[in-house]
Specification:
This protein is of the alpha/beta class and 253 residues long. It has nine helices and eight strands.
Length: 253
Amino acid sequence: MRALRRRRGWTQKELGRRAKVSQQAISLIERGHGGRLSVETMRRVFAVLDARWEPSLSWRGGDLDRLMDAEHASLVGEIARRLAEAGWEVAVEVTYSEFGDRGSIDVLGARRDVLAIVVAEVKSELTVIEATLRKLDEKVRIVHGSLGRERFRFTPRSVGRLVVLPASDTARRRVDRSSDVLAVALPDRGDRVRSWLRSPGGDLAGILFVSNTNPGGVTGAGGGSKRIRSRVDKQPEHDPSTNRGHGSESPPS
């Protein structure tokens, strides 16, 4: 902050006036005591300097991102194994770039025998639902277009859009709280999802809760097509629309 303030030629008092805080608050920040101020105040002061202040969170001496990445990779590995066990050809972290749309698909599965493709968006935590749905819609549109032909050499007759979440109470509560949106955008659950994955026909739009049973994640997947032994779990899972139980899926043998 001191460097940015001096670059503008401002005193601490001038910066405080523009940010609507006291000169003492500016002094606190510049002396390394910004933790005494609110997050909102810190962001407002730095915004006056055309800068963005974002705190970083560390956990046990390391970045929390590493923990989140491990959980995400583990869920990717689990759904990839389940698809492969059900006869899908599986590719992970498939990148795309088409007419300004770019990104990557966590898990992409193909069944050549029935001309079906499934797009799985894996979330260790469901946060911004609207953004997730928009991005998933983009990925399905690209699969319908060029990506299916480029990756698997066929245009899909059936496409499944699937959000994969951990089988935790937290994830289920998040889905329940957003049921008004998710019941329309991703109405399929439980038996319907598992039945479609075993024998795809028509389109699918749903949510699948999976137990995180693969702490190591996928090794060496790197976006290539890969067949991995697993199964599509047949145990019941929570379905808010039918009040089925919260039975979590059992790990693969």
